Amino acid sequence: MITLKFMSIELLEDNLNEWVYSIYTDYQEGQIAINKHNFDGKLTSFEKASKRVRIKKETVEYEIYYRIVKLMKSKPGIKEYYWLHSTKKIEPLV
To answer: Does residue 49 contact residue 27 with C-beta atoms inside 8 Å?
Structure first.
């Protein structure tokens, strides 16, 4: 289930042990710090976003955490990235 229609991250800090990212969603901004060695993360509370989408805070935070950690495992330290979910049918670019 997609709860967020838009999410992006931007690298704020890249130090010896962790990456720190700004997170922007449809409803709220926050930050996450991802440990470079074990991919554990410390995430800002996304209570406001969870109220707006009417889904438990833990579910929204898990969705955010899961997307970012999955990205870090394939593209460690990426500078910026965004996710866009749309139900509109989009024609292929020719």
So the answer is: yes
Does this model's pTM top 0.70? My answer is yes
Please tell me the distance from the alpha carbon of residue 46 to that of residue 42, in angstroms, as a whole number: 12
Report d(CA 56, CA 44) in Å as an integer.
Answer: 15
**How many C-beta neighbours within 10 Å does residue 21 have?**
27
* Joined tokens for residue 27: 């409803």
- How, if at all, do strands 80-84 and 41-43 pair? unpaired
Query: Distance between CA 82 and CA 47 in Å, rounded?
Result: 21
pLDDT, one tens digit per residue, over 12-26 is: 999 999 999 999 988
Q: Which two tokens stand for residue 75?
A: 């593209």
